[in-house]
Design brief:
The protein is an alpha+beta fold. A 5-stranded antiparallel beta sheet has the order 2-1-5-4-3. Helix 7 runs parallel beside helix 10. The protein is rod-shaped and about 160 Å long. The structure holds adenosine-5'-diphosphate (ADP) and magnesium ion. Magnesium ion binds next to helix 9.
Length: about 475
């Protein structure tokens, strides 16, 4: 891990932002403190100068000169830094200020002047000039060195406190960024392994306390789902191969026998007829798979219109009547009075009904009943039910029968490919219709199956998102 990488992490940038904010706050605090102290010191200085000037102005000429030249009062020694007497032409008479400060006016107001002493550094003086007895001018000044010292002191203490704090914050930033980078690095490694094809690999998600771990948890759940879906696809591939292999193997074995040339003409005809049946089964599997794919990929509902469910059901019942009769099953249709409109594709809905009735007839023993019923649901939608008195579907299998190639163990002896209900559910998804499976009656040995389809209101349905 390089330092450059660490410095580019979000954590480190956040640390930098905090450090800048810290320095900014300290500087602001210093500026505010300084300006307030300065204003206070100015006011105090000006008051002192005025008070002292008023006191000295009451003195006699000789006394004043003496006091100024000897600095004979406490105030003159401690509070006032500069004191002098000048005549009206600004010539020096007594005191330690030898030349008239430039810019000073005798107006009873305090002025600020910069004094340039011979050896020392220049300094700023608050200074006041007032006329006193004997045509003289009293000049009193007080330096602002206090503030300069205060500023120096504050700057020093600020540096002493801020530098270690900033260094500590930066160090924390680097350590935290280093840790974050380490975690991201481990995630990258896991992702690389997943991309290399190790689909069982998962991101280190820990106990999902922080946002990174929660994100990793979500990604892991997504990977679980993807792995499951890929497993399903692989299973479907295997199933297709398996389902095509059996009839094809039979065809091949028969043709082998026919090639040996020992079969009679009648036997040959039987071989051909059975082979055609087997090949038809292969074709029907392939056709059904292509059809499901086609319907699942359909984004648009071209050819959708309002169709009458009663009309379709009547057609289907007519079509399956002879088959039901051969199997000695009573096929009944309880039609709702009046049309039952749904918004959909007539041919696809015929496929749905044909598959449901075909299953019902297949899985019901002779002497049983298959009943078809339609109802308007009272809210603009419609309901279709196909019930039988057959072997039924156990609750734990009701989800699985919708999967491609799934066939219940009980139905192994009945011909079929296990694709019918997949086709039904693909078509119903396209129609936004809900399919439910239940027991048709309270009978343990022969519970029967009840397939219910709820269609949404027949006003045109919005296209599903692409
Ligand atoms: N009416 C029904 N009664 C009992 N089981 C059913 C019924 N319809 C479907 N099944 C079960 O669901 C499985 C899948 O049905 P389907 O997809 O139509 O395939 P197939 O009809 O080719 O077996 C069937 O094999 C059967 O086990
Ligand atoms: Mg079927």
């Amino acid at each position: 891990m390089q330092l450059g990488e660490v410095l580019r992490t979000a954590t480190f940038r956040l640390t930098l932002a905090v450090v800048v904010a810290m320095i900014g706050t300290a500087a602001l605090q210093f500026a505010v403190g300084y300006s307030q102290t300065k204003a206070f010191e100015f006011r105090r200085t000006d008051e002192l100068l005025h008070r002292e000037a008023a006191l000295l102005a009451r003195e006699q000429k000789q006394d004043l000169e003496h006091k100024i030249s000897e600095r004979a009062t406490d105030d003159l020694r401690v509070v006032i830094n500069q004191a002098a007497l000048f005549d009206t032409a600004h010539r020096h008479i007594a005191g330690d200020l030898h030349t008239w400060p430039e810019g000073l006016v005798v107006d009873g107001h305090v002025h600020e002047v910069t004094v340039l002493p011979n050896e020392d550094a220049p300094y700023i003086l608050r200074i006041l000039a007032v006329p006193v007895a004997g045509d003289r001018v009293l000049v009193l000044g007080r330096g602002l060195h206090m503030i300069a010292e205060w500023r120096l002191m504050m700057r020093h203490s600020l540096l002493v406190s801020i530098v270690p704090t900033v260094l500590f914050a930066l160090l924390c930033g680097i350590v935290l960024s280093h840790r974050a980078l380490g975690r991201v690095g481990r995630m990258h490694e896991a992702i690389d392994r997943i991309m290399d094809g190790d689909l069982h690999e998962r991101l280190p998600a820990g106990r999902q306390r922080d946002e990174m771990q929660r994100l990793a948890g979500s990604v892991n759940r997504m990977l679980d789902r993807l792995e499951h879906l890929m497993g399903e696809i692989r299973d479907v591939g295997n199933d297709i191969a398996h389902d095509l292999r059996t009839p094809l193997a039979r065809v091949r074995a028969r043709l082998d026998r026919a090639q040996a040339g020992t079969l009679s003409a009648d036997d040959l005809r039987t071989v051909i007829a059975r082979s055609i049946d087997d090949l038809d089964q292969c074709f029907s599997i392939i056709t059904a798979l292509l059809r499901i794919g086609e319907i699942e990929n359909a984004r648009r509902r071209v050819g959708f219109s309002v169709v009458d469910l009663n009309e379709i059901a009547t057609d289907i019942v007519d079509l399956y009547e002879p088959i039901a009769e051969t199997r000695q099953i009573r096929l009944a249709f309880h039609a709702a009075s009046g049309p039952v409109p749904v918004h959909g594709d007539r041919d696809l809905l015929i496929e749905v009904l044909a598959n449901l009735i075909d299953n019902a007839l297949k899985f019901t023993d002779p002497g049983g009943d298959v009943t078809l019923a339609t109802y308007p649901d009272g809210q603009g939608g419609a309901r279709l039910e196909v019930a039988d008195t057959g072997i039924g579907i156990m609750p734990e299998e009701r989800q699985a029968v919708m999967n491609r190639f799934y066939r219940s163990d009980k139905s192994r002896n009945v011909p079929g490919s296990g694709l019918g209900l997949s086709l039904v559910s693909a078509i119903l998804r396209l129609h936004n219709a809900q399919l439910t499976i239940a027991n048709a009656r309270r009978h343990d040995a022969r519970p029967g199956a009840l397939f219910g389809v709820a269609f949404p209101p027949s006003a045109p349905v919005a296209a599903p998102p692409a």
